Every structure is written in C-alpha cells, then in structure tokens.
From TrEMBL:
Pfam families membership: RIO1
Gene Ontology annotations of biological process type: defense response to virus; innate immune response; ribosome biogenesis
Superkingdom field: Eukaryota
Name of this protein: Serine/threonine-protein kinase RIO3
Keyword Cytoplasm part of the UniProt annotation: yes
Keywords: Antiviral defense, ATP-binding, Cytoplasm, Immunity, Innate immunity, Kinase, Magnesium, Metal-binding, Nucleotide-binding, Phosphoprotein, Ribosome biogenesis, Serine/threonine-protein kinase, Transferase
Enzyme category, top tier: transferase
Region Disordered: start-end pairs: 123-160
Catalytic function, reaction form: L-threonyl-[protein] + ATP = O-phospho-L-threonyl-[protein] + ADP + H(+); L-seryl-[protein] + ATP = O-phospho-L-seryl-[protein] + ADP + H(+)
Gene: Riok3
Length: 514
C-alpha cells in the first residue's frame, strides 16, 4: 500500500506563548507516514484533528494573552499582508503586460495564441470575484493553436526532382524555428521566423529541453508558494477578509482558533456593533472553509447532485465551489433556524468565511456529544431531542444532515445543538436516503452504546424520520430498498422533472416524545 505523508501537529516549541497558539505564527511541521486506507478513514481524520487541536490549541486562547485581531492592535503579520498585497498588484501588472503582448501578437489573426497559462494571478485567485461573474474555462492550449504545417503522411511533397521529404534540412530547420514559438512566453526566442532562421534538430532539441526545464522550475516555485500558504491556518486573503470584519466594527476581536479540521478552521470572536439591520451575537464563531482545493474533491458528490446547486456547479471553478459550501451551510442553518432547531445563527457570509453565533461561553465551545458525560436522564433527553430534530430537519427543512454523529452535536444549555451542515442535502438528492441511513446508524449506535434503552435501531429510526416504512428486516435488504427508491426517484425526476410524491412525506412522521 502506498505510503502517504501526513503533516503532524505542530510542536509547541520554545518561543512566546502566543506563537505556539496563534495560527498566524509560523509553526514547524513534522511528518509521519501512514497508509492510504488510513488517510481515507474518517475516524482517523477526526482523531488526527483532535490531536492537532490538542497540540496546537490545548485550550482556547485566553483573553489575558491579548487580543488576536483587534481594530487597534494590528500584529506584525499585517506587514506581511501588505507586502503580499503589493505583490498581488505587481502580479496583476505583469499579467496586464502579458495581455498587451498577447494582443499585439494576435492582432486580427484568426488563429490566436494565449498566454493565459503563464499569468501570475491564476484565474481562481482573481480577487475581482466581488463581481460574481462566473469564470469559464476559455483557455486553450497554446501548443495546439498554431501547429507548424506538416509533411503529408506519404513523407514527401512535390514531384520529380522537386521532391522534398520531411527530412529536408531547410524545411526541417524552418519548422523547428516555428516550433520555438510554442515555448513559454517568458522564454525569449526572438524573431526567428522573420529572420528565416533554420534550426538544426540538435539545436532545437537542446533549446526545447532548456525551455521545459525552465518551465518546470517555475511551476515548482508556484507549487511551493501554494503549499506554504496552505500550511498556515488560513491564507493572507482570508486573514484580510477577517481583518476587514474587525475593522468595520462588526467583530470586536478575534480571539483564537477553536478547531482546525481538514476542510475548515473555526475561530472564536467577540461580536462588535450592531448595525441597523443586524444584531451581532456577543460571541461569534467564524468558520473558514479551507481553500486548499484538494480536500473538497472528495465532497463533490454532496453538492454536484444537489438540485439546488446542480446548474451552477458545472460552471464554477474550484474556489467558487468552496464558497458554495459556505453558502450551503448558511442556507441550511437558516432553514433550521426557521424550524426552531437549536443551531448556530448566521451572522454574515463573506466568500468562504461564515460568521455565526458561538455555541458555548467565554470562548469555550460547547462540548461535542461524544466528549460530554451526561446523566442517564440527560442522555435520554438528548436522544429524544435528536430524534425530533432529525424529523424536523427532514419534514420541515427538507434536509438530511448527511454528517450527523456525536461529533457534530454540541451539548449546551441542557440541550443538543446541531452544527456542521455544509454537506446537508435535500432527501431527494440522488444519495440523500443513503446519507440519512448513515446518519441513523451513527445516532442509533451512539445512543444505544450510551445506554439509552429506548433508542430505536437504525432501520426503525430511518422509518421514523423518513416515514418511508421500509419493511426489510436486515441491513442488506434495507439498503437495497433505499437504493431502489433513490433510483426510482432519479428516473422520475428525469422523466417528469419532479420528485416522487412519496418523498414529500405522506402525513406527519410520528413524533416520539419522552
Ligand atoms: P468541520 O467540517 O471541520 O467538522 P464544524 O462545523 O464541525 O466543521 O466545526 C468544527 C468544530 O468547531 C466543531 O466541532 C466545534 O467544536 C467548533 N464549532 C463549529 N461551529 C461552532 C459554533 N457555532 N460554536 C461553537 N463551536 C463551533
Ligand atoms: Mg464537524
């Protein structure tokens, strides 16, 4: 099995206390290897996350240590930020120049070449995203645009003594010169065609080799830049976004990080001033969806088949898709809020940064259900509450949580709060019922293990939530029926453009109360 390098938790090494806790501070990373299967395991991911949290943030940063980001106290990292903003300006100018050159070269020619691939500011990076114009992949392969003319397959052209073969020195030399135009634009090739330069194969190959290795070097540099930003908790642009929230007075202080997951980083903040239309909670959670694109690849299936997002999905670039996760979490939370399900209240969404009310107190997040020790009375109460919330979620919000477990339920104020709903889907999602069944399994197993005698098993729970009344008495058949239903619904949607009525719930699901 392949061995995969996984960055382990940063050492809380020597240095000032804030440095070891502050995600802005540079941290050392060590590596350990584990198998690909391990990497794919959700359980392991959670454990690693926990380890990482414990090591990097043994506790939430205490107020006494000074504010994290405030209006007045701008830490030194903003110098870096300024430098990076200047660099961004510089890169933009470079790209503008590239565009001018591109235009000059192409002129009115029908066949055009593009330098798109050589721009410093990657289209995904573009900060002009405020305008929300969907980026479309209009790039074309510059190596294909102006292929040099080739000798026909027979290997020669002309007649009699005017025959020239593909090996003809002059033809070949000119062809090589033309091919040089295909090197990266930063590779200066001069006006070889204008000078009727004829390059021998040997010289051309040497130049080609050099051009490619230059290109690879440049790609490596870009890659390094990507990785170094990914290593820190959030990238400079996100920091800037958060900083703006403090600057505008919406947030008073960002105190520290409460969780670093694979796909998101969550910060605690004290709320700032209310505006005309917005009351800011006294304590807020800032969920930053990580813009390291790879992590989200695994989650495509949640969003790309979601009818609400389907049309947009295909048109979007990965960065926008990540914003869609944040947007999805916002919409789902709002639905839940409207149904009266205890969950964080949305404050604001800015790109991939979602601000919501903080579940917890004095910077300490409420414990996850898996970490809290409850009396058997409270555990039973929690169970019935979860059952009711699942039913409400399904019936009133038309949602399936899709990652429901003791990890995403917090115990606060004597009740369970649901969080982490960016992946939640409507039940008619092509895999919606499978997700629901998985949720039911997690919930049933957790409460059964916790000693709640009344806890329904996963199949009973599934029926109680969905009201689909699947009768199979074993898991395999049950799942087969679920999949058959999903398939039936898909076909129905394809043929009739609407979902099966059975999914809308025929009558109220039974409400199980204490
Ligand atoms: P992930 O996708 O990384 O699991 P979550 O939304 O589950 O993201 O957030 C990760 C952790 O951050 C949670 O387990 C919880 O401890 C904390 N957290 C998230 N949102 C809030 C919130 N609104 N209030 C308090 N803590 C929160
Ligand atoms: Mg979570």
């Amino acid at each position: 099995m392949d061995s995969v390098e996984v960055a382990a938790a940063p050492d809380a090494g020597p240095g000032p206390a804030w440095q070891s806790k502050c995600p802005w501070g540079a941290h050392n990373t060590t590596s350990m290897s584990c198998s690909l299967a391990d990497v794919m395991s959700e359980q392991l991911a959670k454990e690693l996350q926990l380890e990482e949290e414990n090591a990097a943030f043994p506790e939430v940063v205490a107020v006494a240590e000074g504010p994290f980001i405030t209006g007045e106290n701008i830490d030194t990292s903003s110098d870096l930020m300024l430098a990076q903003m200047l660099q961004m300006e510089f890169d933009r100018e470079y790209d503008a120049q590239l565009r001018r050159e591109e235009k000059k070269i192409n002129g009115d020619s029908k066949v055009s070449i593009s330098f798109e691939n050589y721009r410093k500011v990657h289209p995904y990076d573009s900060d002009s995203s405020e305008d929300e114009v969907d980026w479309q992949d209009t790039r074309h392969d510059p190596y294909r645009a102006d292929k040099p003319t080739t000798t026909p397959r027979k290997g020669f052209i002309g007649k009699g003594k005017d025959i020239t073969t593909k090996h003809d020195e002059v033809v070949c030399g000119r062809k090589n010169t033309a091919r040089m135009e295909n090197f990266a634009p930063e590779f200066q090739v001069g006006d070889g065609i204008g000078m009727d330069l004829k390059l021998s194969n040997q010289v051309f190959n040497a130049l080609k080799q050099h051009a490619y290795s230059e290109e690879r070097r440049s790609a490596r540099l870009h890659e390094k830049k990507e990785h170094s930003t990914a290593e820190k908790a959030v990238d400079p642009k996100t920091r800037l976004l958060m900083y703006k929230m403090v600057n505008s007075g919406m947030l008073e202080t960002i105190t520290g990080c409460v969780s670093t997951g694979k796909e998101s980083v969550v910060f605690h903040a004290y709320g700032g001033n209310a505006t005309e239309d917005k009351v800011i909670p006294p304590e807020c959670a800032i969920k930053v969806f990580k813009t390291t694109l790879n992590e989200f690849k695994n989650r495509d299936k949640y969003i790309k088949d979601d009818y609400r997002f389907k049309d947009r999905f295909s048109k979007l670039n990965p960065r926008k898709i990540i914003r869609m996760w944040a947007e999805k979490e916002m919409h789902n939370l709002t639905r839940m809020q409207n149904a009266g399900i205890p969950c964080p209240q949305v404050v604001i969404l800015k790109k991939h940064v979602l601000v919501m009310s903080f579940i917890g107190q004095d910077q300490v997040p409420a414990p996850k259900l898996k970490d809290v020790t409850l009396s058997s009375e409270d555990m039973k109460k929690a169970y019935y509450q979860v059952l009711n919330m699942m039913q409400q979620l399904y019936k009133e919000c038309n949602l399936v949580h899709a990652d429901l477990s003791e990890y995403n339920m917090l115990w606060h104020d004597g009740k369970v709060w649901l969080i982490d709903v960016s992946q939640s889907v409507e039940p008619t999602h092509p895999h919606g019922l499978e997700f629901l069944f998985r949720d039911c399994r997690n919930v049933a197993q957790f409460f059964q293990k916790a000693g709640v005698a009344e806890a329904l098993n996963e199949r009973e729970l599934f029926n109680a939530v969905s009201h689909l009344n699947i009768t199979a008495d074993n898991e395999v058949d049950f799942q087969a029926e679920i999949e058959a239903l999903e398939k039936m619904n898909e076909d129905h949607v394809q043929n009739h453009g609407k979902k099966l009525p059975v999914f809308s719930g025929d009558g109220d699901p039974p409400i199980y109360a204490e």
